[in-house]
Amino acid sequence: MDIEPVARTLDKIAGGRHSADRVPEAVHTDPRTKRSFRVVGWLLVVVLVLGASAVGEAVLKTRQGVHESWIIWWRLVVIFLIATTLFYFLWRAAAGLWWAYSRLRLFSIVFPVVAIGTCLVPGLYPGWMIAEQVAFSLVLLVVWRVLSATHLREGFDRARRVPEAAS
Fold it and tell me: Does any domain span residue 53?
């Protein structure tokens, strides 16, 4: 089954008018780029495991009779959506799509800021969820740092992208 047509439709939604813009092939096939993306992939697995652990904790607390608020359940769903989205961005960035690298790098810094910001609201989350949010944020900050390596920033520079029509 060829999922590329579906991916291109999603690319148009996520990447907008730059959805087909690619970086030169030498950039995304560079061994350093592949190694960096592999590291990011494993870090995103850690984010997913943290999210699954948080769901497990919430289910356990609920079974013990502790009522968790809707905001906690909502946040648990959001963590999985974030992880899924970031995996998609990684997959498309590895294919050389400029927009995907750009979004991956941006969201890996924005999501931790939002997560920590919400943790600062008194009484919003229980202690176990604050710990999960801090861990989630730290892992995503490492993702941002990996994606900020000079060879990636230079390779995925906006000026280097090549519109599909020009390829």
Answer: yes
Q: 3-class SS at 48?
A: helix
Task: Give the whole-angstrom CA distance, residue 89 versus residue 73.
Answer: 25
**What is the residue-wise DSSP string for 51-109?**
HHHHHHHHHHHHHTTPPPPHHHHHHHHHHHHHHHHHHHHHHHHHTTBHHHHHHHHHHHH
What's the mean pLDDT in 82-90?
91
What total number of domains does the chain contain?
1
Residue at 13 is within a domain: no
Q: How many whole angstroms separate alpha carbon 89 and alpha carbon 70?
A: 28
Domain with 101, as residue range(s), is 24-162
Is position 115 within any domain? yes
- Whether 57 maps to a domain, the answer reads yes
CA atoms within 13 A on the CB side of 94: 15
Residue 167: pLDDT band by 50, 70, 90 thresholds? very low
**Rounded to an integer, what distance in angstroms lies between the CA atom of residue 13 and that of residue 159?**
22
- For residue range 142-157, list pLDDT tens digits in order: 999 999 999 999 988 8
Confidence of residue 80 (pLDDT cuts 50, 70, 90): confident
DSSP letter, residue 2 = -
Residue 14: closest CA among 94, 113, 104 = 104
